Amino acid sequence: MRRKQVIISSIFLLVLPIVSTDVFAQPTQAAPKISSRYAKVFYQSDALLRLFNKRIRLGSLSYLLKRRVSEELSLKGQVSEKIDIIVERVETILEMRPKELRFDIIITPDADAVRSLYKKIYHRDVEFLAFYSPLAKAIYVSADDIKSKVLAHEIAHAVIDQYFGVAAPIKIHEILADYVTENFEE
What we know:
Elements: H1 2-15, E1 33-35, E2 39-42, H2 46-55, H3 62-68, H4 75-94, E3 103-108, H5 111-122, E4 130-133, E5 138-142, H6 148-164, H7 170-183
Helix pairs in contact: 1-7, 2-4, 4-6, 6-7
């Protein structure tokens, strides 16, 4: 059921009319953030970041995290490296590597916060756990509900969006993001 919600969220996101970027709920300068090679991650508290980190499991890709660093990583370092590993896996699955891939990840406490942000941006009620906003170049996720495959699916939308530079057809966008979900190894 949750996978369907994520898929539906992506379809709705792509068919909505373009809105002014000043409407987007952007994190404030005071919000804590982490920078990885590909993303800026915004979060409200260390507890929220710990929950996000705990729920993002690399499974069979864990060896990449161990191989990248010889010493133990801090919480922020773990999150940063996990995101970069997921991004690179998504790029490999899609065989798409945008030249200067950059996006934000906004970690919210729960699905209600994600839905509230979606409503603020797009003026619609939805049942999403996460979504990618192409105009803001941002992924909004629920720390309570996030999983590696869901994050990979949303990152796929960012990769596809920035690879083509123009909006890909909706069905192609979703088929490719689903392909990532199905082929992403946890």
